[in-house]
Amino acid sequence: MNIDAEIVSRKTSWSNWAGNQRAEDVSLFRPRTEEQLQKIVRHAVASNKRVKAVGSGHSFTAIGIAEEILVDLSNYDAVVSVDKARNTVTAQAGIQLSKLNQVLHQNGLAMQNLGDIAYQTIAGAISTSTHGTGINFTGIANQVTALRMVLADSSVVDCSLDSNAELFNCARVGLGALGLISTVTLQLVPAFNLKVIEEPMRVDELLTNLDRHVSENDHFEFFWVPHTGWALTKRNNRTTDAVQPMSRLSHWYSKTLMENYAFGAVCLLGRAKPSLIPKLAKALPSSGRNEYCDASYKIFASKRIVKFYEMEYAIPREACVEALNRVRRMVSDSGFFLNFPVEVRFTAPDEIPLSTASNRESAYIAVHIYKGMNYVPYFKEVESIMNSYQGRPHWGKLHFQNAQTLAPRYPQWDVFQGVRNLVDPNRVFSNRYTEIVLGK
Ligand SMILES: Cc1cc2nc3c(=O)[nH]c(=O)nc-3n(C[C@H](O)[C@H](O)[C@H](O)COP(=O)(O)OP(=O)(O)OC[C@H]3O[C@@H](n4cnc5c(N)ncnc54)[C@H](O)[C@@H]3O)c2cc1C
Does the CB atom of residue 126 touch ligand 1 within 6 A? Predict the structure, then answer.
């Protein structure tokens, strides 16, 4: 049904980046204005339908599946204003982080921290608690200072710590379940450069000195390579040094050929003949040491061509070594052949009710499997380890939890539920995934 000449509306299908989630036969709306967002919600309520906004479809879970009305925000992606005195930016919800980063850089500004890609939209990224690494830095949602939302009654509400604070806190990681985010205001910092050191380390030695690595580096992460005793480490530190990027050839070799095409070929081979994986894995840590320096947004985000499925758990930081060692033992005892590294990152706590780092300093352990391979047995084994640390799954990455198992893991669970009941009592913004993880 056409509710406005500028809104596309037709029966369409949709699938996410990894290709493991699909929506069929849904009505597609591509709004360009906030007024159109309101009209969509009014139309949905009047016809008793559910609404789902999607960003770039980079969630692995069914969180982004529209069941009736799909709101694609790719035409609602402008920067509304940049305030250089306060170091803030306000942008429409559908802006991709890659576009936002460019605009910020041109204005001498940058986001404080980012995840490892920048394909996500700002609203999608915050809604699932997307984060990067750095024990003194939080996830992206905690960089938000204000939101403008279209609620189920089609009203537009401004919220921040100073007004509608409870809605603001909950909607920063709202799983798309509280309303349509219209605009997002972020606290930024002056643009900065990062000095990078990438090098393999023996994993046992690395774990012995883990606290030091995490505390001494602004942004520390590592990738343990299953079937080997090696980890690939990445240390990013803020610097006033001038940029000294990798040469184009080294960049292409390391970031495009090795991390994507060669790695993709190794994954394909491993999927065809899993027993080859342990031998193939031994080639990974031989990538040597790289040292370079570049603008922060270029360092944080990388290119991801090889498709995979992922599960990621946030656990208390102090449990990291024990939990990872249990994963290592499980892998060697299980006979799984794993062609993707296990990624480990760290963040500071925040106070956002459904943030995966809510009220605790966190370590994140992420496991991946090449697209097309059966992830269930491996992910379930890892999940059962994470359960013993009150692990919180990334809302956009695969897991097998439900509202009952999740509620005790979030000290402010009831606050979120109270706000949800208030702003969306009829569950206009629900889908099957939110029914499972939040309850009906
Ligand atoms: C290759 C790859 C790398 C990744 N790297 C990281 C990483 O480093 N760190 C990390 O934490 N995660 C990472 N992720 C996960 C990713 O950041 C999240 O899944 C993120 O939510 C995806 O953003 P999106 O724009 O694609 O949102 P989608 O997946 O499209 O949507 C996610 C949620 O946001 C909601 N939403 C979107 N727009 C709105 C709106 N306007 N109003 C209300 N709700 C809205 C949707 O309804 C849905 O509930 C990665 C994923 C992939 C595929």
Answer: no
